[in-house]
Amino acid sequence: MAQEKLRKEETLAMRNRLIGQSCRLFYSEDPVKIVRARGQYLFDENGKRYLDCISNVQHVGHCHPAITKAAAAQMDVLNTNSRFLHDNIVLYADRLAATLPQKLCVFYFVNSGSEANDLALRLARQYTQHEDVVVLDHAYHGHLMSLIDISPYKFRKLAGQKEWVHVAPLPDTYRGIYREDHPDPGQAYADTVKDLIEDVHKKGRKISAFFAESLPSVGGQIILPQEYFPKVAEYVRSAGGVFVADEVQTGFGRVGHHFWAFQLQGDDFCPDIVTMGKPMGNGHPLACVATTAEIAGAFTANGVEYFNTFGGTPVSCAIGLAVLDVIVEEDLRGNAVRVGAHLKDLLTKLKARHEIIGDVRGVGLFLGIELVTDREKKTPATEADQICVSTDGPWENVLKFKPPMCFGMENAELVVQCIDRILTVLQFNIYTKTFNVNFTNNNRKIHV
């Protein structure tokens, strides 16, 4: 039976009636109804094409034929849970292991970044037998209750900070407590974690883990200062804790020269646990935790089986393997280097034309533009009025770019042309959160 096609107004009315209102839409005043996609493009019900600049989940491009082919082929043969012996899960784990430091050699497959981070928290606590967690200010690690508790971005709007959660300053060298002019911001920010751990010990408590996104995204597309992670890891391990790198937003080659963003902190740095998610399945729910044999052994020793119904199924792992193949075959890391550098250069030149652009930062295809009303004071530009990009950061004034990795040079140029035009015409009036301006270029609309 053919699926009934609804008019946009009918779809919106049914959504408002049937779907929880806390599940929000992009462009809520006039939502875009997307009915198909390919590569870095989305198409609405009228065939209008939109350039997608934020869908980092569709890592190698929307509806990539190699991914859909791999999924359909495996689904046509077998899709059971991981309690049955099967090649795909071990072949996929082996491929992932080849991208990571040697000691990260044990894998647990789950369905989402939230599940991965929740499991990482369990692993850390089981291994250390400690409870407390250190996180960065403005961090977001997932929607489960355990993760809301360690996500200042969320818990400050809800029940508040738990006594076992300790918040370290965000290492933001643009507007943080230690800035670009500091002689060693990495060490200075790491020392704030050291001081925090000492305060925790004075209270008679012990640290189980330090959790951090390898590049904080919700915090404002932050590029961490060099040597920050290695020094923090030193302090955390000395306190009996473990270092957890959250790669849910940034892994799988988005930063270009490295497969994982934590590798930006040096070839010798290795976390104790790495979580991954969003881009792994190119839209299919697939996530993972990688850790050491020692930590995994402690988790096994508790005597309680870990089982995830849909984690690591043959279909999920076939999709994961196909994603890894496409990253290599289409040189998407190289593309992230080339296109990311071009986009960053164009945005930096745009900064010279528009006083509202306070900072342009990023690496590969992980970029941000911080908007300010006063460059010297770095006053966040929070009063909005129309541009076309999603925002992040404590004041929702950082335009974020995390497009599919197939994003091209011409796409970068179009984005910058449109932002330039909007900032010029609107005289720096910017709309907060998700901006929706129906500006088009050759009948193409941008969804950033």
TrEMBL record:
<dbReference type="GO" id="GO:0008483">
    <property type="term" value="F:transaminase activity"/>
</dbReference>
<comment type="similarity">
    <text>Belongs to the class-III pyridoxal-phosphate-dependent aminotransferase family.</text>
</comment>
<dbReference type="InterPro" id="IPR015424">
    <property type="entry name" value="PyrdxlP-dep_Trfase"/>
</dbReference>
<protein>
    <submittedName>
        <fullName>5-phosphohydroxy-L-lysine phospho-lyase</fullName>
    </submittedName>
</protein>
<dbReference type="InterPro" id="IPR015421">
    <property type="entry name" value="PyrdxlP-dep_Trfase_major"/>
</dbReference>
<dbReference type="GO" id="GO:0005739">
    <property type="term" value="C:mitochondrion"/>
</dbReference>
<dbReference type="InterPro" id="IPR015422">
    <property type="entry name" value="PyrdxlP-dep_Trfase_small"/>
</dbReference>
<dbReference type="GO" id="GO:0016829">
    <property type="term" value="F:lyase activity"/>
</dbReference>
<dbReference type="InterPro" id="IPR049704">
    <property type="entry name" value="Aminotrans_3_PPA_site"/>
</dbReference>
<keyword id="KW-0456">Lyase</keyword>
<dbReference type="InterPro" id="IPR005814">
    <property type="entry name" value="Aminotrans_3"/>
</dbReference>
<dbReference type="Pfam" id="PF00202">
    <property type="entry name" value="Aminotran_3"/>
</dbReference>
<keyword id="KW-0663">Pyridoxal phosphate</keyword>
<dbReference type="GO" id="GO:0030170">
    <property type="term" value="F:pyridoxal phosphate binding"/>
</dbReference>
